[in-house]
C-alpha cells in the first residue's frame, strides 16, 4: 500500500530547529495518528518530533543514542554529553540552544522515505523461545517479525516505526518513513577502544587520539564485573554461534546443560563477537537493544546489534581495548 503522509506536528522536525524555539506545527493531529501507539500516549507529537530529531542527528554525528525511539532517556543523555564534550560545550546532557546549533550543522533530512526490500524485512521469521535450552533447538535465531528486522535496519524502536507509519504494512515495495541513519561514511580504523563502566560508553579513538565515535553499552554486573585493565582484540567473528555454559551464569536453571546456539540477530551475542585477550570476554551485540545501558551483563561489553557492527568495521586484530571504571 502506498505511503500517505499525514500532516502532523512530528514531521515539522524535517525542518532544522532554531534552538531553543521548536518548529511550528498544527494544533492537532489526525485521530488515527493520536491512537498510533505507546509513544504517542506518553507524550505530544511535538515532543516526539523534537527528541527524534536530536537522536537521529546524534547518531549521524557518531554519538549513538542506542535505540532511536523519540523518548528522552539515559542513552540520549550519554550521547549528548559525549557530543557536547567533543564540541567544547558544557556537558549538560540537555538539548540547550548551543547544542541544537551544533547538531543542526548537519542539514540532511532527519527522516527519509524508503521503499522496503526483502532484505530490509529480514525473513524468514522464528518464534524465539525464552530459555537457552529451547533456543539451542532452533536452526537459526532469526528475527521474530518484520517490525523487529526494520527496527534493527534503521536503528529504531519498532514502536517508533509504527508511529511514523500508521497506515503502512511491512511488505516489500511499500514505502515507509525511516530515520536517516544508513549509508553514512565509514569511520576508518580505530587505534584504540575505551570502555567506561561508570559512563556506560564505548569510545573509539584514531591514531591522533581524536574521538571517532561513542556508543552506549552494558558492561559488567555485581557477580561478573567488567575486567578493568588493558586488553587487545584477538578476533572479529561475524554471525557467531554461541557456546552456552550454565556454570558461567549465576542465574542459570539447575537443569540447564552446555549447548550451542545457532547464529542470528536473536543469538545472545547478536550478529558479531569481538573476542578479547581476556578469556571468555568480548564485545558483542544483543537481541534486546532497548536494554543496552540499562541492565547488567555477564561481564562482557554489550551494544545494540547495529552499533556492534559499526565497531567491528572500525577495529582489527591487535587493537588495544582499555576498560576502566
What can you tell me about this protein's structure?
It is built from 10 helices and 13 strands. It is α+β, with helices and mostly antiparallel strands and 325 residues long. The strands form 3 sheets. A 9-stranded mixed beta sheet has the order 5-4-3-13-7-10-11-12-6, sandwiched between helices. A hairpin with a 5-residue loop joins strand 4 and strand 5. The longest helix has 16 residues. The protein is globular, with a radius of gyration of 20 Å. It starts with 30 loop residues before the first helix and ends with a strand.
Brief synopsis:
The protein has 325 residues and is α+β, with helices and mostly antiparallel strands.
Provide keyphrases for this structure.
disordered N terminus, alpha+beta, 10 helices, globular, 24% helix, two-stranded antiparallel ribbon, 325 residues, nine-stranded mixed sheet, 18% strand
Amino acid at each position: 500500500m502506498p505511503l500517505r503522509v499525514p500532516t502532523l506536528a512530528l514531521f515539522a522536525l524535517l525542518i532544522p530547529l532554531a534552538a531553543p524555539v521548536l518548529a511550528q506545527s498544527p494544533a492537532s493531529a489526525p485521530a488515527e495518528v493520536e491512537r498510533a501507539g505507546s509513544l504517542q500516549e506518553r507524550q505530544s507529537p511535538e515532543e516526539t518530533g523534537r527528541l527524534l530529531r536530536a537522536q537521529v542527528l546524534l547518531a549521524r554525528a557518531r554519538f549513538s543514542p542506542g535505540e532511536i525511539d523519540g523518548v528522552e532517556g539515559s542513552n540520549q543523555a550519554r550521547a549528548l554529553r559525549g557530543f557536547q564534550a567533543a564540541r567544547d560545550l558544557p556537558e549538560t546532557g540537555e538539548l540547550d540552544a548551543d547544542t541544537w546549533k551544533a547538531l543542526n550543522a548537519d542539514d540532511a533530512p532527519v527522516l527519509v522515505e524508503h521503499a522496503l526490500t526483502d532484505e530490509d524485512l529480514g525473513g524468514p521469521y522464528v518464534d524465539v523461545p525464552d530459555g537457552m535450552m529451547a533456543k539451542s533447538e532452533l536452526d537459526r535465531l532469526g528475527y521474530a517479525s518484520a517490525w523487529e528486522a526494520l527496527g534493527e535496519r534503521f536503528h529504531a524502536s519498532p514502536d517508533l516505526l509504527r508511529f511514523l507509519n500508521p497506515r503502512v504494512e511491512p511488505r516489500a515495495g511499500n514505502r515507509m518513513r525511516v530515520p536517516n541513519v544508513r549509508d553514512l561514511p565509514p569511520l576508518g580504523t580505530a587505534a584504540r577502544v575505551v570502555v567506561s563502566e561508570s559512563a556506560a560508553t564505548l569510545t573509539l579513538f584514531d591514531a591522533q587520539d581524536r574521538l571517532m565515535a561513542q556508543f552506549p553499552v552494558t558492561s559488567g554486573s555485581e557477580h561478573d564485573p567488567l575486567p578493568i585493565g588493558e586488553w587487545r582484540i584477538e578476533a572479529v567473528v561475524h554471525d557467531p554461534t554461541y557456546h552456552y555454559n550454565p556454570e558461567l551464569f549465576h542465574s542459570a536453571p539447575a537443569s540447564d546443560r552446555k549447548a550451542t546456539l545457532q547464529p542470528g540477530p536473536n543469538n545472545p551475542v547478536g550478529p558479531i563477537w569481538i573476542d578479547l585477550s581476556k578469556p571468555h570476554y568480548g564485545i558483542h551485540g544483543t537481541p534486546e537493544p532497548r536494554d543496552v545501558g540499562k541492565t547488567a551483563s555477564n561481564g562482557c561489553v554489550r551494544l545494540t546489534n547495529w552499533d556492534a557492527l559499526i565497531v567491528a568495521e572500525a577495529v582489527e586484530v591487535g587493537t588495544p581495548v582499555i576498560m576502566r571504571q
